[in-house]
Amino acid sequence: MKPAVPFSLHHFSGNHHEIGLQHGQAFRKELQDIEHIVLRRIVKFASLKRFILRYLGEKMLPCLPDEYVQEMKGIAVGGKIPFETVYFLNLLPTVASCLPVTMIRKYFLNLVPEVAACSLVALSGRRTRERGILIGRNLDFGFAAIFQKLIRFAVYRPKGGHAFFTITFPGFIGVLTAYSEKGVFFCESSIDCSRTDPKAMPAVFLFRRALERAGSLEELQSHLIQEKRSGEFNVFLANRARAVHLELALLDYRTQRLEEKDILYAANHFFSKDLWRASWKRAGRNPFIDSRQRIFEDYWAHDPENQEVSDVAAFMKRLSERSKSTSQTVYSLVIELDSLTGLIACQPGIPVAEQSYRPFDLAGIFERV
């Protein structure tokens, strides 16, 4: 039987504390390096870590469901590292988007938020050769070279919740890219906490809880809209029949539906005009985002039809090449939802723009042990 993914697949099951223990034991070696990585490679000064945990982490901790606190405690016990290190790791996506750029440049290494730009494209109907839904997804992050070495593939089976497959990292319990046993694909394309509500659940935990609870795409969409949000997010949801790009502002939201266009894209900024104006009024125009949007518009202008997985992979690679540093893309994934097969580029130490994509297969992943 061919492997479901091109690397080792980990399985975690039970209540959340048990899952955390299994996670910590499976990744103990990597976790014991995390403290060094966080303090020496990402954060220049331990005092900044303490500042973040005190003024951001302590405010958000009471907003976390107890099961996720227990899971992080399980990781700390299993991995033999401090709970604070596990919690800080899970706060990184929020931290990277809420601190002022001047502070990030002063205190962080390898983090350049203005060029970190997750991208996603989805096609269906006449746009694809098989007439199903094709998805291309780039996960970009400012310290990609570090996290490329930590990519892991796992299936979670939480007691009382729906099982899901996720592309994750040691110590990280949130969700950035995942596929539920209910046939729902999820990924984020933006977490913007420049206008943060510290008394709300951090984004990656909110995404995980919604995915565990939702029995369908519609339920997942409803959970994400109704939950109190800590910032502004772009997320993408899809099953074999439908795909939705959901723009979530603090108090409002907009949707783009694939069936309305046969092609859509999502990125780390809003496309709906009213939300877009408000966002860019605060942040200003970004030349990198402008250049990437021109790539999307050029792709649209050629009216692509009969696209295959390899065609979308070439497009996602082109987006990765537009980054000021090609190592900004942590991994790039293309998947055809009818067959659950596709291609992935995630080799450590090699910029995605220089990699060859490898076969990726999720078919029957929840039956594998």
What does this structure look like?
It is a single chain. With 369 residues, the protein is of the alpha+beta class. The protein is built from 13 helices and 14 strands. It has helices at residues 16-26, 28-42, 46-60, 66-79, 83-98, 101-107, 144-148, 203-213, 217-226, 258-261, 273-283, 287-301, 309-321, and strands at 9-14, 119-123, 134-140, 152-158, 164-168, 177-180, 185-192, 232-238, 243-248, 253-257, 263-266, 329-336, 341-345, 358-361. An eight-stranded mixed β-sheet has the order 1-4-5-6-7-8-9-10. It has a six-stranded antiparallel β-sheet with strand order 11-2-3-12-13-14. The longest helix is centred in the N-terminal third of the chain and has 16 residues, at 83-98. The chain starts with 8 loop residues before the first strand and ends in an 8-residue tail after the last strand. Mean pLDDT is 81; it is low at 109-116.
Structure, briefly:
It contains 13 helices and 14 strands. It has helices at 16-26, 28-42, 46-60, 66-79, 83-98, 101-107, 144-148, 203-213, 217-226, 258-261, 273-283, 287-301, 309-321; strands at residues 9-14, 119-123, 134-140, 152-158, 164-168, 177-180, 185-192, 232-238, 243-248, 253-257, 263-266, 329-336, 341-345, 358-361.
